[in-house]
User: What shape does this take?
Amino acid sequence: MNVTLRVNGETRTASVPPQTTLLTLLREHLRLTGAKLGCDVGDCGACTVLLDDRPVNACLVLAAQAEGREVTTIEGLATREALHPLQQAFEELGALQCGFCGPGVILSAKALLEENPGPTRAEIRDALAGNLCRCTGYAKMIDAVEHAAKMLRGEVRAATPASVHGEEP
Assistant: This one.
């Protein structure tokens, strides 16, 4: 069957078997490998993408369910000129180690910040609850999301450890 959807702002069509998941379509047919296959049962969040701006576990969504819809993957965030503020904050604050969970965490955070540009730490924790990380704690991730929110609101320019801890003018 043919599935046509918009991926990162571009219309894409792929011919896939009916049982194909959105994750398989993205990784194997469209060669977008940012979303990872972790648990394959929707528990880890490594496969998180945005479907019509809402985070979903791509391992649980059939490709056919994405027909005619907008999918955003981690590959769609940065421009040629710059990283997305979330990517920049995560990188500059060292909020990730191995990077396996990173795309899903960042996309979950993006959905949160689009809905709530000034979330509390508790709201950030709730938004990231579906994304497991085995390498690091979540404190730096929460700091990075908070800082990216400030960047998106124009309150700070760049993420640095000093600015996160209130030392930036």
